[in-house]
């Protein structure tokens, strides 16, 4: 697994979902905001306790996760 210093997992925070620095904002929330067209500046204005690097790492984490999904191989019948 890659190391993401700003992505944390705690079962007591947001049900254990990947969060930004232990805060109650998930990496998925950040990725969703970017996907819906919000600029980094807009996100930082909406969540002033975030840092620019938090957004970058949320996106990097999401990209890494997509690459890590296992797809079962289909076996042909003999």
From TrEMBL:
InterPro entries: DUF433 (IPR007367), Homeodomain-like_sf (IPR009057), WH-like_DNA-bd_sf (IPR036388). Transmembrane segments: none annotated. Pfam families: DUF433. This is Uncharacterized protein (DUF433 family).
């Amino acid at each position: 697994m890659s190391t993401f210093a700003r992505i944390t997992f705690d079962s007591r925070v947001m049900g254990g979902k990947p969060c930004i620095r232990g805060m109650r904002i998930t990496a998925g929330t950040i990725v969703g905001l970017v996907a819906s067209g919000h600029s980094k500046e807009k996100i930082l204005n909406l969540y002033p306790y975030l840092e620019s690097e938090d957004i970058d790492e949320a996106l990097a984490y999401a990209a890494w996760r997509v690459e890590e999904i296992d797809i079962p191989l289909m076996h042909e019948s003999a």
